[in-house]
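hi support,

uploading two proteins for the ticket. first:
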Amino acid sequence: MSIKKRVDEIDIIRGFALFGVLLVNLTMIDATLYTMENIPFSNLSGMEYISAWAIRLLAQGKFYTIFSFLFGLGFYYFLRKESSDVVLNRFEKRLYALLGLGIIHTIFIWHGDILHVYALAGFFLIKNKNKSDSELIRNMIVLFVFSTTIMVIGSQTGGSEMTVVASDALTAYQQNSYLELLKYRIQNEVPVGLFNLIVVIPKVLVLFYAGYYVGRKGWFDQLDAQRKRIIDYCVISGSLFGFSLVMMLFLSHLDNSIAFKGLIIFEELSTLGGSVFFMTAILLMAQKNKLRKMLMPLRNLGKMALTNYLMQTIFWTSVVNGYGLGYFGKIPYYAYFPLAFGFIMIQILLSSLWLTKFNQGPAEKLWRMAYRDRS
C-alpha cells in the first residue's frame, strides 16, 4: 500500500471521528461538570430519552478513543522520518506547543479540552518508545485496569451537596458575563480537571500505546494484505461492543450501587469495543471503491482536525453560553444529531475549499510554526 493511500485512510477515520466528537461535545458544552448525569436520563421522555441513550451508547467515549489511537499511530510514523534524536526533539516541541494551546483552550474556551491531556500523555509515550511489544501490551492492560478501577471506586450518584454545586454551575453558565464565567472556571473547573488527569492520562496512554504498537507492526502499511485480520478484529470488537451495550441498558434499570459501578465497567468495555469496531468497519468499507468514494469527503475534514476541533468548540460555546446567544440548557437531545451533522457538512465544505489553496489548516500551520526548528 502506498504512503498516500495509508494516510488517506487515517484522515478518513479522523474525519469520521470528528463527527462523533462534535456530537458528544455538544451534550457536554450544553451542560456543566456538575449537571451531567451518570445514569441518564430520569428527567427525559420520548424522543429526548431515546436520543440521550443513543448518544451515550453509540458515541460517548468512542471517538476521542479513536483520536487517541491515531495520535499514537502518528507518533510511530513521525519517528520513521529521520534520525531519532532530531525527530524526538521536534516531537517534544510539538507537545509543548500543544500543551500551551490546550491550557489556553481549557481556561478561555471550554473545560472539556482534550489537547492538554494528549500533550501530557505524549511525554510518557516518548519515554516508553523503546519498550518491547510484550511490555507495551502489559502496560496497556495495567493502565486500563488502573483507570477503570479508579473510576469505579470514585464513582458516586450525587446528593444534596452536588445539587447546590450544580445550581451554582448553572448560574455561572447562564449569566451574560464572560469574565464572571472565566472566574468561575478557574476557581471551580480547572482544579477538577487537574485532579481528573489521574484517570484520564492513563486511559489516553493506553490508546497511544495501542496506536504505536499497530504502527510498529506495520498493519497500516499493508491494509489490503491485512483484510482477514481487520475482519477478525471487526467481528470481535463488534461482539464486545454489542454485549456491553446490552449490559449497560440492563444495569441502568437497577437502582443500586453495584449496578452503577457495573455500568461504568461495561461503559469502558463498550468504548474499547466500539472504537475498534468503527475503525475496522471504515477500513473495510474503504477497500470497496464505491464506498471509498462516499467516505472521501471525510479526508479533508481529517486533514484539518485541529482547526475543525477548535472551530467546533469556539462556535458552540458562543451559541450556548450566556455571554453568547444564551441557548444553555435549551437544546433538546434529539436536536444534537441534526445540529452535529449539519455543522460537519459545513466543515467538510470549508475544509475542502481551504485545502484547494493551502496544504494544511490554519491551526495546524500555527502549531507547526510554534515547534519548527529555526536553527
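and the second one:
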Amino acid sequence: MTMKRTAFVAGAAAMALAFPVFLHAGGTIVEEIIARVNNDVITLSDYQKAEASLHQEATQDCDGCSEDKINQMVADEQKNLLRDLIDRSLLVQRAKDLDINVDTDVIKELDSLRQQNSLPSMDALEKAVEGTGANWEDYKEQLKRRILTQRVIQQEVGPTVKISNDEIQKYYEAHKSEFVKPEEVDISGIFLSTENKSPQEVAAIKEKAQALEKRIKAGEDFGALAKRFSEDTAASQEGELGEFKRGEMTPDIENAVFPLKRGDSTDVMTVANGFEIFHVNQRFEAGLQPLSKVEDDIEGQLYQSRIQPAMRVYLTQLRKDSYVIVNAGYVDTGGASSSSVIQEVPYSTAKDKTKKKKAPKTDLGDPGDQNP
C-alpha cells in the first residue's frame, strides 16, 4: 500500500475546508489542530512540547556553550520545527505501509536502558522515567516512533546512498593529512560493577566476568556479549569506548591494551568499582595510516555528508504522495509544491449558530513552501 492521495479521497472533502478544535462544554478551546498528515494530526500541544524540548537538546548538544550560542541554535531549529514533526509523522506512517514491526526492538531498548541505569526491573525503570516528570506511555511511544523512523531510513534511504571504492580512494588522496595519527587503539569494553557489593557478591561477579572471558576467547562476538552483559552506558553501542592515544588511559590498562593485535581481548581486569574486559577493534601505528585502516572512516564521512540531502529528497516525495495540510500561521519548510495551506475556519459560538454562514474561503497556494 502506498500513501497516494487517492487513498484519502473519502476523507479529503471533510478535512479540506476546516481545522477543527477540540472543545470543552461551553465552547472553551482545549486543543487545536495545526497540521494534517494523511489521517494523522499534529496538534498545538504536540508543537509546544517539541518547542519546549529545543533548549534542553541544544544545551546537551553544545555542552559549555554560552547562552547566546544556545539561543541561536534554538532559533535555527525553531524554523524547521513543524517540518520535523511532519517528517516524523510521514516516516511512521510509511513504516506501517511497509509492515515494519519494532515491538521487540522497543523492549530490547528499554531493557538496555534498565541495565545501563542499574535498575532491577522494568517497574523500576518506569518509576525512574516518571520521576523525571515524563509519562511512561508517552515515553515508550516516542521510543517506538524513533525506532520506526530509523528503520524506514535504513530500509528506504540508506541503500540509495552509493559510495564507490574510487570515491574513497580519491578522498584519501586529497585528505592524507587527516590520517596522520599518533599510535592509537580503538577499544570496546565489558564492565561489571561491584559498587556497594559484599565480598561474596564481588567474588560471584568476578566469576561471571571470567566466564565471559572464556566465551570471548572461544570465539563469541565481543560486541554482542557487551550489549547483553556490560553494565555501563557503552553497552548499547556494543561496548564501544572510542580511540585512545598513549597516556590517555591508566597505566595498567594501557600496558594491557597497546601490545594487543586487532581483534584481541584482555583478561579480566580490576578497575574502579568493578571488573572489565577490553577488546581492540582497531589499532593505528604512528604516522600516515594506510587506506585499509581508514576506509571505513572515510566511507562513514561520505555517507553522513550525503544521507541528509537524500533524506530531504525522500521526504519531499513522501509529501507529494501524501495529503499534507498546514494551518495558516505555521510554515512547513520542507513542503513539497503540492502541499496545501488552508486558512482555519474561526470557531463560532452558540449565539452564531442561528445565523446563516457563508462557505469558508480556502487558500490552496503554497506560501511558505521551500525547496529542501
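thanks. also noticed: The chain has two domains: 5-158+305-354, 183-285.
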